[in-house]
Amino acid sequence: MKTTRPGGATSGLMLAIATVIVITANSAWAAPQDVPSRGFVWKDGAEVYAKVCGYCHDAQIGPQIRGRSLPAAYIRTIVRNGHRAMPAFRSSEIDDESLIKLAEYISKN
Ligand code: HEC
Fold first, then answer.
1. 21 domain-assigned
2. Residue 94: how many CB atoms within 10 A of its CB?
3. Of 30, 51, 67, 70, which residue is least crowded by CB atoms under 10 Å?
4. What is the mean pLDDT of each run of 10 residues along the chain (109 residues)?
5. Closest CA relative to residue 92, chosen from 41, 47, 52, 48
6. Is the CB of 71 under 6 A from ligand 1?
7. Atom 37 (ligand 1) nearest CA
8. Is 61 close to ligand 1, i.e. is its CB under 6 Å away?
9. What is the CATH number of the domain that holds 85?
10. What pLDDT was estimated at residue 4?
11. Distance (Å, whole) CA 105 – CA 107
C-alpha cells in the first residue's frame, strides 16, 4: 500500500509558489513611487539610476544628469527633497548608503 508523506507534495508546491513570488517581486519594474520591501538593498548606484532615475532622466522627462559632473551633494539633496517637477525619494525607497553610491555614480558618469 502506498503511503503519502504528510505535506510532501503540498509543501513542495507552496515553496514553488513562494519562489515565483519572490522572483517576480525582485525583477518586476517598480514605478518610482513604489516602496521596495523592507530590507531591500540596491546592488549599486548604476542599478538605482537604471531602475529609478533613468525612468525620467533617460526619457527626456527630466534633464540629462549624467556626464555633467554635477556635485554629489547637490544630487543627494535633490533626491531627498525633490525639486519642482522632480519627486523626492525617502530613505525607505533609496537607503542612505545607496544614495551615496548613486550620487557618486551620476557625478562621475
Ligand atoms: C518622475 C520622473 C523623475 C524621476 C523618477 C527622477 N527625476 Fe530627477 N528630475 C525630474 C524632473 C522633471 C526634473 C527637472 C525639475 C525642474 O527643474 O522642474 C529633475 C531634476 C533633477 C535634478 C536637477 C538637474 C539639474 O539640471 O540641476 C537632479 C540632480 C535629479 N533630477 C536627480 C535625479 C535622481 C538621482 C533620480 C533617481 C533617484 C531622479 N532624479 C529621478 C524628474 C524625475
1. no
2. 21
3. 67
4. 56 51 48 58 95 97 97 98 97 96 97
5. 41
6. no
7. 53
8. yes
9. 1.10.760.10
10. 53
11. 5
